[in-house]
Amino acid sequence: MADSTHENRVLDYYDTHPINEHQILEKLALDGVDRQHLSEDVLKNYDQDHYGGVEANDVLAQLAGIDETTHVLDVCAGMGGPARYLAHNYGCQVTGVDLTESRVDGAKKLTAMVGLEDRVTFVQGNALQNPFADRTFDVVVSQEAFCHVPDKPTLISECIRVLKPGGRMAFTDIVEHPTITDAARGELVTGMAQVELGTLSGYQSLLENEGCTIISADDLSASWTAILVERLAMYRSLKNQTVDRFGADHFQKWDDAYSFFVGLFETGDLGGGRFLAQRNIS
Fold first, then answer.
1. Which of 54, 196, 92, 77 has the alpha carbon at shortest distance from 142?
2. Which domain holds residue 17?
């Protein structure tokens, strides 16, 4: 289970993240978007805080077979961009769970603004103790979030516990490669709140141990390296907004940590993985 020190580190990381409710609403205003008539088709261009944008949502949806009959659980749902996108474009019901109360609150407000609160709901909760009954969901998804969650066996066990037999789990995450050093791991904990990073083979083993069949496990390291270089430039473009809201020291701390993180992708110490597994019927 997560200790309180790491949990507080994650909360602080996302409470002061450059992409947040305030930043999204400010950018909408700067672009002249009428927030009184905001649609998901417009909001999707502002709220996708994961690698690959809406196209990555489509890949997971197609892998998992999401349609209008599906009830999806988005674990570590953040500001809710993928949850809203899936509900709007695939007609599914989505429940999002996230540890950080400020992001849950922001996700609820943005969802109401685009009129999707009848199909998308968010709850505050810990992924290591999912607040849902066994066998509730048809699909579980997550994107680049498990890197912040310690105790990967419990994390995967909780995801599969709430998944119906025959249901699918489709997720992406940052993974470590054998060349990474203990010193680099320590920097990722303090700078990015990333702890106990998984591996491509490790996640597959954990899923199999929970009674799942691995359908696919894709190495995304090369494409993510290019994406992350662009994301670093994007975060730097938000400097004025970040400084105004959180101060110059915070911006510099964030920039140092993210630059280090991107560098580990460029040297091959970190990579990315996309996983699709199905919970066995028996």
1. 77
2. 4-221
Q: Which amino acid is at 31?
A: D
| Low pLDDT (below 70) residues in the chain | 1-3
Task: Select from 44, 55, 53, 59 the least CA-distant residue to 231.
Answer: 53
> What are 120's strand-pairing partners?
94
CA-to-CA separations, 24 to 110, 112, 182, in angstroms, rounded = 9, 15, 36
Q: How many angstroms separate the CA atoms of 256 and 186, rounded?
A: 14
Handedness of CA 65, 67, 69, 71 (dihedral sign): positive
Handedness of CA 58, 147, 97, 45 (dihedral sign): negative
What is the Cα gyration radius of the chain?
A: 18
Task: Specify the CATH number for the domain of residue 210.
Answer: 3.40.50.150
Reference 169, options 74, 273, 52; nearest CA is 74
Cα(215)–Cα(44) distance, integer angstroms: 29
Q: For position 5, what pLDDT does the model report?
A: 87
Site of tokens 């599914």:
92
pTM attached to this predicted model:
0.95
- Token duo for residue 222: 């090369």
C-alpha 277: how far from its chain's center? 18
Separation between Cα atoms, residue 12 and residue 8, nearest integer Å: 6
Confirm whether 214 is domain-assigned. yes
Number of domains in the chain: 1
User: Quick one: pLDDT at residue 3?
Assistant: 67
Question: Helical H runs in the chain?
Answer: 4-15, 21-30, 40-43, 53-64, 81-90, 101-113, 152-161, 182-192, 200-209, 221-237, 239-246, 248-266
